[in-house]
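Customer escalation, tier 2.

The customer says the design service returned an amino acid string that "doesn't look like it belongs to this structure." They asked us to rerun it and document both sides in this ticket. The original structure tokens are below, unchanged.
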């Protein structure tokens, strides 16, 4: 009796509605650099490392692409939007901006794709857009920890987006 060989199946693509469409699939191999922010993709992750960038950019066949964070910024496709309002904010705006920038630096230390895309002034205060929802949440939490006030989070799934609002 002949034993049937198992059929070769194509790799089943994971369908995950919460997946970030800007991230690369697992099968993206090799090394690439983003010339805009000088982050380097290798070992299946992005990192920001000046020396690594300088050495990789000299390689002959290095792929130059836009990293997911720069692509999101270009397309204006935020993962999080944080609004800050109130008179306390107006009085402490430079301190609060420092705190926001510190949170961004910290987040980029873990994951260079977590960044602030834009900070703009609105009628009532500030609006900060970030590349991913975690950074919006982190900034909201740390502002509340430092300055109290009220913070509210609203999630939507399609596309994955966190809207947060802080007021004091
Ligand atoms: Zn980039």
């Amino acid at each position: 009796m002949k034993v049937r060989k198992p059929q070769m199946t194509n790799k089943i693509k994971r369908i995950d509605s919460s997946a970030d469409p800007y991230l690369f699939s697992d099968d993206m191999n090799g090394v690439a650099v983003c010339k805009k922010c000088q982050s380097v993709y290798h070992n299946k992750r992005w990192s920001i490392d000046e020396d690594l960038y300088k050495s990789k950019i000299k390689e002959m066949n290095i792929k130059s692409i836009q990293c997911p964070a720069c692509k999101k910024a270009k397309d204006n496709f935020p993962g999080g939007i944080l609004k800050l309002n109130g008179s306390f904010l107006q009085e402490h705006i430079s301190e609060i901006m420092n705190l926001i920038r510190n949170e961004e630096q910290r987040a980029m230390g873990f994951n260079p794709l977590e960044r602030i895309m834009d900070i703009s002034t609105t009628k009532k205060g500030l609006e900060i857009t970030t590349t991913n929802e975690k950074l919006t949440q982190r900034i909201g939490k740390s502002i509340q920890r430092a300055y109290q006030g009220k913070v509210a989070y609203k999630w939507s799934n399609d596309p994955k987006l966190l809207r947060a609002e802080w007021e004091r």
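Tier 2 assessment: The sequence is consistent with the input. Residues 34, 36-37, 39, 66-67, 69-70 surround zinc ion (CB under 6 Å). The two ends are 78 Å apart (CA to CA). Sent an explanation to the customer and offered a walkthrough call.
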